[in-house]
Design brief:
Layout (H helix, E strand, L loop, with lengths): L2 E6 H11 L4 E4 L6 H7 L6 E4 L3 H14 L3 E6 H6 L1 H10 L5 E7 L12 H8 L3 E2 L4 H18 L3 E6 H4 L2 E6 L14 H4 L3 H21 L7 E3 L2 E9 H10 L3 E6 L1 E3 L3 H10 L2 E5 L5 H8 L18 H9 L23 H11 L3 E3 L16 E3 L5 H13 L7 E6 H17 L4 E7 L28 H7 L4 E6 L3 H12 L4 E7 L12 E5 L18 E4 L2 E4 L9 H5 L5 E5 L3
Helix pairs in contact: 1-2, 1-7, 3-5, 11-14, 15-19, 16-17
């Protein structure tokens, strides 16, 4: 009998990859996919890395596959956009060793800049998609994906969502299967996608999808549950769980493969039920295809295309039952805010004082857009801050950006910001770029990156020197400044925004939540000196409040960064060093 363990969906995917004999894993951290790689490193049989971005990670996995071993690539849904160039082409190339891409979607936009549906990308790329509905299926479907990958000569997408990634369930543990490496044989017609080869491989891909659609009708990952035939529901993934909770007696066709769809199986199921519903989060991917076959079904006319589904939503949409909100548990709102001691707050406080706008990027520092800092004006995607600023200058001239900077984190700069800065230099742009170097990939949970000096597997490595990298691009004006040295930062920012050239200011201070971070102590307010002016409250540190007219610092939250001390014009705040 196999052992059992309670696992997150992401842990189960890592376990499935291990059991499937995967030898190479590449990824870029992004919620909700990050824990896959963080758990894979527990299996020493697998080489695992953080790549600089998702495109590179995809290409690493492709290279491993071509060489003849099973490989895994994992990322969040917007990372699939970055990786789409190699993804669309490897669909034509196919595989040697099995190749699986985990695409973690984010219905509800809990930690993303959009709510796209990776199934639509997969349809365009002509890549099969499996979608598990619990942790055990996450493990099983990962293994199944490799079987399909090698049998049909195709990369396979394993689609997950935030709810699946971060929910726990019982998982059966099985032994690892050591899959023999496939021999590498040179085949230009298969692996060199120049036009003449691509034309022939496209024909192969079209036939592959037809074969898969037919064969999927007999795959055990699709399950037809015939009960009360007055209502039939087609569903997949996490929404299947809500269907079973709300309508336990309904007939259900649970799809494990959602691209290509098993048409014959769906037609058979539809013929058995009186009224057919299609329950899928986000876009009507299944619904539109089913209706195009002439099958009557109810879908997005009663279900939303926005946000995450729930059992209560289905009760209202299908049964007309309203949830009594007065009786439901009310969770207080917790607005996002930078942590106590965050160096980004210090940097933004200077920009706010100087009334400077910031073209923003993806990371913790995106929170600089909200009160009380209100500095970030734009956020598009990874690396876009620098390109956005450059576009503004080319559109409206130097005068328009005289009170603007681009703001980007160290990990994001290495992800795609390097290219944007290169473009600014090459196309004779001007502008000031602030690289907020907090020595980690912060928002996704403190992962290593190319400048930290450690790999995903914890091995020491050569750290990329961001200062030297910027200088190597030919940028003359590159500076490093302590993020908490407000005077020095203010002086340099004033100087550089006035300069008609490209300049880079690297604001350095480690994230206060890093395990290696040593708090300086605790900040203490002297009530006799304090004039209650509130200057220390302006940056919005959550450790500071005003109570009964007095400034209060919560010692359990304060780590002695000293920003409030720097802001106080009356020297009413002092630092009590650790151990004193």
């Amino acid at each position: 009998m196999s052992k059992q363990q309670i696992m997150l969906g992401n842990q189960a995917i890592a376990r499935g990859a291990y059991e499937a004999g995967v030898k190479v894993s590449a990824a870029y951290p992004g919620t909700p996919s990050t824990e896959i790689s963080e758990n894979i490193i527990n299996y020493k049989e697998i080489y695992a890395e953080w790549s600089p971005n998702e495109k590179v990670a995809m290409e690493v996995a492709i290279g491993a596959s071509i060489s003849g071993v099973r490989s895994l690539c994992s990322m969040k849904h917007v990372g699939v956009n970055v990786a789409s160039d190699p993804l669309f082409t490897v669909s034509y190339i196919g595989v040697n060793g099995g190749l699986v891409l985990v695409a973690a979607d984010d219905p509800g936009i809990y930690s993303s800049q959009n709510e796209q549906d990776s199934r639509m990308v997969a349809r365009s790329a002509m890549v099969p998609v499996l979608e598990p509905s619990d942790s055990e299926e996450a493990r099983v479907f990962t293994k199944k994906a490799y079987e399909i990958s090698e049998k049909y000569d195709t990369p396979v997408i394993l689609r997950t969502t935030t709810r699946l990634s971060h929910s726990q369930g019982v998982v059966n543990l099985e032994d690892r299967v050591e899959v023999a490496d496939k021999p590498y044989e040179r085949d230009m017609r298969k692996t060199v996608m120049m036009p003449a080869c691509a034309i022939e491989r496209h024909k192969f891909v079209e036939q592959r999808l037809k074969d898969l659609a037919n064969d999927a009708c007999d795959m055990d990952i699709n399950k037809m549950e015939i009960n009360d035939t007055s209502i039939g529901i087609i569903s997949s993934g996490i929404p299947y769980q809500y269907v079973k909770e709300v309508l336990p007696n309904a007939s259900v066709l649970k799809l494990g493969i959602v691209n290509p769809l098993p048409r014959k199986l769906i037609e058979e199921f539809a013929s058995k039920v009186d009224k057919l519903y299609i329950v899928e989060e986000l876009e009507p991917v299944i619904e539109e295809q089913v209706k195009s076959w002439g099958i009557k079904a109810i879908g997005k006319e009663i279900f939303t295309v926005q946000g995450e589904y729930s059992a209560n939503m289905l009760r209202k949409a299908i049964l007309g039952q309203e949830l009594d909100l007065e009786k439901a548990a009310q969770v207080p709102n917790r607005p996002p805010i930078l942590c106590p001691g965050c160096p980004h707050r210090s940097t933004f406080s200077v920009l706010k004082k100087l009334k400077i706008h910031a073209a923003g990027d993806i990371g913790c520092y995106t929170l600089g857009a909200v009160a009380p800092l209100n500095v970030i004006d734009t956020t598009v995607c990874m690396g876009a801050s620098i390109s956005t600023l450059h576009g503004m200058e080319k559109a409206k001239g130097r005068e328009f950006i005289k009170d603007w900077v681009a703001v980007i984190g160290d990990s994001t700069f290495l992800h795609t910001g390097v290219n944007s800065l290169m473009n600014m230099v090459y196309n004779k742009g001007t502008g000031t770029v602030l690289i907020l170097d907090n020595s980690t990939t912060g928002m996704t949970g403190h992962q290593e990156h190319a400048a930290t000096g450690k790999t995903l597997m914890g091995e020491p490595t050569y750290p990329i020197n961001i200062f030297n990298l910027c200088k190597a691009m030919g940028i003359e004006n590159v500076y490093e400044v302590d993020a908490f040295d407000l005077d020095a930062m203010e002086k340099i920012i004033k100087q550089e925004v006035a300069r008609e050239a490209v300049s880079v200011i690297i604001c350095k201070s480690p994230c206060a939540l890093l395990k290696s971070y040593v708090p300086k102590g605790k900040c203490i307010v002297d009530d006799e000196k304090c004039k209650k002016c509130g200057a220390c409250l302006v940056p919005g540190c959550p450790a500071m409040t005003k109570k009964d007219g007095h400034i209060v610092i919560d010692e359990t939250m304060c780590n002695g960064c000293g920003l409030c001390m720097s802001k106080c014009p009356f020297d009413a705040i002092s630092l009590k060093k650790a151990g004193e």
